[in-house]
Specification:
The protein is α+β, with helices and mostly antiparallel strands. It has four helices and six strands, in the order ααβββαβββα. Strands 3-2-1-6-5-4 form a six-stranded antiparallel β-sheet, sandwiched between helices. The longest helix is centred in the N-terminal third of the chain and has 16 residues, at 32-47. The structure holds methionine sulfoxide. The site of methionine sulfoxide (SME) has 14 residues, from α3 and β6. Methionine sulfoxide binds at residues 51, 72-73, 76, 81-83, 104-105, 107, 111, 114, 130, 132.
Length: 158
């Protein structure tokens, strides 16, 4: 299945086009992993990120879920790294330079900046979306707003 082409060049234009497409492929009749897999693929293809994927909360830790990109660590403890911190603090983490983030977990030395957005279901965090870039300062308030909106709207499918 081919993804529709994404028109526009600005980050905002890309998100505006992409978000309805992601929502359109979310499927109530499959489990959340299938939907996470398609969402990760669409974000990754559209923006050419270094690594795009989910960690799911399972038995009190974050466990690697569907992703696009190179090999990643499989388990992250509560409060550890950028992902565990987003889970603990219950908020999106935007990290312009991962080397300046205390406790950052370097799954790949090529990763330079990162955003982690929690998935809330009934007020509880059930997963986090983690996106890594090979360049510094890739993520800003625009990414935060659109990704939070996307995960808010699609949470029932994840
Ligand atoms: N850097 C993340 C770990 C996951 S990988 O980037 C895929 C962190 O510090 O939580």
């Amino acid at each position: 299945m081919e993804q529709l082409s994404i028109s526009g060049n600005s980050k905002q234009e890309k998100y505006e086009t992409l978000l309805p497409q992601v929502q359109a492929v979310m499927d109530h009749n499959v489990d959340g992993i299938a939907n996470m897999a398609n969402m990760a693929a669409m974000l990754h293809e559209t923006f050419g990120f270094w690594w795009t994927g989910f960690y799911r909360v399972i038995n009190g830790e974050l466990v690697l879920g569907p992703f696009q990109g190179p090999l990643a660590c499989t388990r992250i403890a509560f409060g550890r790294g950028v992902c565990g911190t987003a889970w603990k603090e219950q908020k999106t983490m935007v990290v312009p330079d991962v080397e300046l983030f205390p406790g950052h977990i370097a799954c790949s030395s090529a990763s330079r900046s990162e955003i982690v957005v929690p998935v809330f279901k009934d007020g509880e965090i059930t997963a986090v979306l983690d996106i890594d870039s090979a360049e510094l300062n890739t993520f800003n308030e625009t990414d935060k707003e659109y990704l939070e909106q996307l995960l808010h709207q699609t949470a029932p499918y994840l």
